[in-house]
Amino acid sequence: MSSKQLLSKFDKYNAEAARYIAGGVVSLNRKVNPAIVFERAKGSKLYDVEGKTYIDYHASFAPYLLGHNFDAVNEAVIQAIRDERSLYGSGTNAMEIELAKLMCELIPSLDLIQVSNTGSEATAHAIRLSRAYTGREDVIMMIGGYNGWHNEVSRAVMPSLAQVGKRVSPGEYPFVPLSAGIPDGTKRRVHLVNFNDLESIEYVMKRNPVACVLMEPAMQNVGVVLPKAGYLKGLIELCEANGTVCIFDEVKTGFRTQLGGYQAKEGLKPHLSVFGKAVANGYPLGIIGGKREIMEQFDHPEPAKKVLIAGTYNAHPVNTAAAIATLEILKNPAVYAHISAVSNQLYDGLKTLFQEKGMAVSLVNNASAFCVYFAENAPADLHDILENVDFATDLKYRKALINKGVYHIPIPCKQGSVSYSHSPEDIAKTLEITREVLHEI
Ligand SMILES: Cc1ncc(COP(=O)(O)O)c(C=O)c1O
Predict the structure, then answer these.
(1) What is the pLDDT of residues 298-350, one digit of tens each?
(2) Best residue for ligand 1 mutational test, from 120, 158, 283 (most atoms within 8 Å of Cβ)
(3) Residue of 94, 113, 141, 289 with fewest CB within 10 Å of its CB?
(4) What is the atom index within ligand 1 of the atom nearest the CA of 123?
(5) Rounded distance between C-alpha atoms, residue 16 and residue 34, angstroms
(6) Residue 137 φ/ψ, nearest 5 degrees
(7) What is the CATH number of domain 32-61+333-440?
């Protein structure tokens, strides 16, 4: 198949999509160049409409920890349908109880949970819950963090240096919106600080009535930015001293770091946590959970203090079955051992290749989540990324890999994901292709 024919088939689909879908693609963060049209995905592989195969490290923005269309998860979903499980829309049921029990058993900070369909819903619930619990309205978040699409959290993930200005510490950054239509009042209630900077959290807390700090324990929407030793513990302590709710957004770090989330890695108990993505291996499900006294606000006896949680499709049996099956699979230590082995094979290989090439890059990983930063040092915050990363080379690298059949989303500094379905052969092939790519760029 010539590249001309390939291009024309993609063009045909993309033109038709543009005719009927606003912006030409559903969820506009998927609008990238090259605009490949995919047909199916299985395990570690993506297949486009021309039958070209890619080894996938995008994992659809990370949920596929076990791999695409993982048989045991799909079987559980099919079984739930065969068993005539339905969304009864009335009362509780055995499946949602099983899921809740599993979550509370696996994650020590969860006394109680609630279920939503997405991570964005979960972060929205967490913010409102914190406001109701504290009687305050302000929220602290990180620049360079992503916590979903609703008003409070929609600030630019990767603003330009010109937009955020010089490094500020202690202090806060302007709210650069990721969306039009966010009320000014909402923006005023959100305070943005740099990751790994406790002084700025303290600075904002002293000046504003802060209901919650909402943050990813490792920032995985600008690659992988790890917390410094003591940062997360210090953050929880600061929140406790200030009567502020500390919310870990573990939508990405959740089950990718380890079974108990990033919090388990550091032995911490945030007041609230939210999970999504890998919890149901690609089926839509969000979890919000945490301290009993905060979560009980959802069912407060005084109507004025009761926080609304509703959603026709919350804990839909298809997604609930997928989550239960995923968590049961992840309980087997051999699963994480395999993911870790293939991830390390990839990281060791990449480091060697870049060294051989004499290119100064920094490979950072949190278990199976990784990023090759085209910068000498691992970033500690967004400012480090904006000041030091060579975005143009990153993009060139990604596009060259895609061209040769290794898929990373063609956006600089986006996290890569290894899955349980990646084999040592997949990694060896990836490294072979990367070697070729490094000769080209
Ligand atoms: C850390 C984090 N929080 C929340 C969300 C929102 O989740 P969803 O896309 O399921 O609404 C995302 C999505 O990328 C995320 O990465």
Answers:
(1) 999 999 999 999 999 999 999 999 999 999 999 999 999 999 999 999 999 99
(2) 120
(3) 94
(4) 4
(5) 17
(6) -120, -15
(7) 3.90.1150.10
